[in-house]
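Title: Comparing notes on inverse folding

I've been comparing how different people in this forum approach sequence design from structure. To keep things fair, I'm posting one structure and asking everyone to reply with a full sequence. Here's the target:
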């Protein structure tokens, strides 16, 4: 069995964390008797510098030809002055739209060893394990018309019925495997687009009577996430709101460097850490690779249907954190401060220890 992975390291710390992911995948390939081929391509600012565009059609074609896409990060102050369609972030929107990636999955899990890493109280955080499902192809990010002049700026928030229906079904299917609870987040008290969202979500809910569905306004959801995050399990929400809420959820985990994500469509899948390019520490071997490593775990789950590998990766991360190893973003007094490359090596070593302890041998699919 062989899988083809397109690597899009991007800008800033992107290449470093993608290198960490590749090291882990290569180790897994040996243990599980599968093989991977990797092709590395430019995206974001690095692509603009060479090609005059943040995403070329050639790179997009390579993504179409892959089993999964792994992205690092894009952007940085160097490119902030560019016009909108040439900014590094425009590559992400183009990639998501072109690949038909309509679901963004962002888990926010509190690892017990990191309870003290957040500014929130440990008793508030302990036991939190939620997932934010963000719709990815609609809303103000893609609605037309859009623009600005000297006196006005305007965007169009729009959703089609199909866009709402498909992510809603995914949310309910996800909840069936968890606690059978979904909170749909919108702004239906103000926005007609959100009223349409809520109406459609409730229509699909009739197909899933086992699921407990409730609605919450986005401003309240933002407050509740930091007040009592354990009340949430599956959060279903619109594109703009999901973008904001998932960053708020970084307070739960202690750092953006801990948040993985998967963006799925009917044919293609993209995996990336939630954090940005962090140009201030780029090239210094300081970045936290755990979000990207967790994203690899999601890749094995959703693209390769190897949930055993996902389980081992999560256990390896937990054991690494329990042993006190930390990168700078999650470091506290008494921890052992390590570099990006050292953290990666430790996680791989822990993965192998668990693999050997479970006497898996050569695991053949």
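Reply #1:
Here's my take.
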């Amino acid at each position: 069995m062989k899988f083809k992975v397109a690597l899009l390291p991007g800008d800033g710390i992107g290449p470093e964390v993608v290198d960490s992911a590749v090291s882990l995948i290569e180790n897994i390939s040996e243990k599980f008797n599968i093989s991977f081929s990797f092709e590395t391509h430019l995206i974001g600012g690095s692509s603009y510098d060479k090609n005059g565009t943040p995403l070329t059609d050639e790179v997009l074609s390579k993504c179409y030809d892959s089993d999964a896409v792994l992205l690092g990060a894009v952007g940085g102050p160097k490119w902030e002055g560019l016009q909108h369609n040439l900014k590094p972030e425009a590559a992400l929107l183009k990639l998501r739209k072109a690949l038909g990636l309509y679901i963004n999955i962002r888990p926010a899990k509190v690892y017990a060893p990191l309870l003290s890493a957040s500014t929130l109280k440990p008793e508030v955080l302990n036991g939190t394990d939620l997932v934010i499902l963000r719709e990815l192809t609609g809303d103000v990010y893609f609605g037309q018309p859009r623009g600005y002049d000297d006196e006005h700026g305007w965007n169009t928030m729009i959703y089609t019925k199909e866009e709402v229906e498909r992510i809603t079904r995914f949310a309910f299917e996800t909840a069936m495997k968890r606690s059978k609870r979904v909170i749909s987040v919108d702004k239906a008290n103000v926005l007609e687009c959100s009223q349409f969202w809520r109406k459609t979500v409730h229509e699909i809910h009739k197909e899933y009577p086992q699921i407990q569905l409730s609605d919450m306004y986005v401003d309240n959801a933002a407050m509740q996430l930091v007040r009592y995050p354990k009340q949430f399990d599956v959060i279903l929400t619109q594109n703009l709101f999901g973008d904001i809420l998932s960053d708020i959820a970084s307070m739960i985990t202690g750092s953006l460097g801990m948040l993985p994500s998967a963006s799925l469509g009917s044919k293609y899948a993209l995996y990336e850490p939630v954090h940005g390019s962090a140009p201030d520490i780029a090239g210094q071997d300081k970045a936290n690779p755990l979000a990207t490593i967790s994203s690899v775990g999601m890749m094995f789950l959703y693209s390769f249907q190897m949930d055993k590998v996902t389980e081992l990766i999560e256990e390896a991360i937990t054991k690494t954190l329990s042993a006190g190893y930390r990168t700078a973003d999650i470091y506290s007094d008494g921890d052992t401060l390590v570099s990006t490359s050292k953290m990666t090596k430790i996680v791989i070593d822990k993965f192998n220890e668990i693999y050997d302890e479970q006497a898996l041998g050569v695991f053949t699919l």
